[in-house]
Design brief:
single chain; 163 residues; mainly alpha; 1 helix; 96% helix
Length: 163
C-alpha cells in the first residue's frame, strides 16, 4: 500500500528539491563562471593571434617589399649590362659594316677602273680596225678604179684596133 502524502512529507520533498535546485543553480553559476573565464581566455588568445597575424603580415609585406626592391635593382643592373653589351655589339657591327663597305667600294673602284681600261682598249682596237677598214676601202677603191680604167683602156684599145 502506498503512503499518503502528508504535509510533512510534502515539505520534506519540497525541501530536498530546493536543496537540489540550489545545488544545480550553484553548479550552473560555477559553470557560467568557468565559461566566462574560458571565453575571456579565448578572447585573449584570439587577440594575441590577431596581433601575431598583423605583425607577421607586416613582416611579410616588408620582406616582400625588400625582395621586390632588390629584384628591381637586379633587373636594372641586368638591363644596364644588356644595354652596354648591345651598344658594344652595335658599335662592333657598325665598324665591321663600315670596313666591309669600304672594302666593297675599293673593290668596285678597282673593277670599274679595270673595266674602263678594257673598254678604252676595245674602243682603241675598234678605232684601229676602223682606220684599217678605211685604208682597206681606199685600197679596194684604188684597185677597182685602176681595174675600171684598165678595162676602159682595153675596151678603147680593142675598139681602136677593130675600127
Amino acid at each position: 500500500m502506498r503512503q499518503s502524502w502528508t504535509d510533512d512529507r510534502l515539505d520534506d520533498l519540497s525541501h530536498r528539491m530546493d536543496e537540489r535546485f540550489d545545488r544545480v543553480g550553484g553548479e550552473i553559476r560555477d559553470l557560467r563562471g568557468e565559461m566566462k573565464a574560458g571565453f575571456g581566455q579565448l578572447d585573449e588568445e584570439i587577440g594575441d593571434l590577431r596581433e601575431e597575424i598583423a605583425s607577421t603580415t607586416q613582416d611579410l609585406r616588408d620582406e616582400i617589399k625588400d625582395q621586390g626592391d632588390e629584384l628591381r635593382g637586379q633587373i636594372a643592373a641586368v638591363e644596364s649590362g644588356l644595354r652596354k653589351e648591345i651598344a658594344g655589339v652595335e658599335s662592333g657591327l657598325r665598324k665591321e659594316i663600315t670596313r666591309v663597305e669600304t672594302g666593297l667600294r675599293e673593290e668596285i673602284a678597282r673593277v670599274d677602273t679595270g673595266l674602263r681600261q678594257e673598254i678604252q682598249q676595245v674602243n682603241s682596237g675598234i678605232q684601229h680596225i676602223n682606220l684599217e677598214m678605211h685604208a682597206f676601202n681606199r685600197t679596194i677603191l684604188q684597185i677597182v678604179g685602176t681595174l675600171v680604167i684598165s678595162l676602159i683602156a682595153t675596151l678603147f684599145g680593142l675598139l681602136a684596133t677593130n675600127l
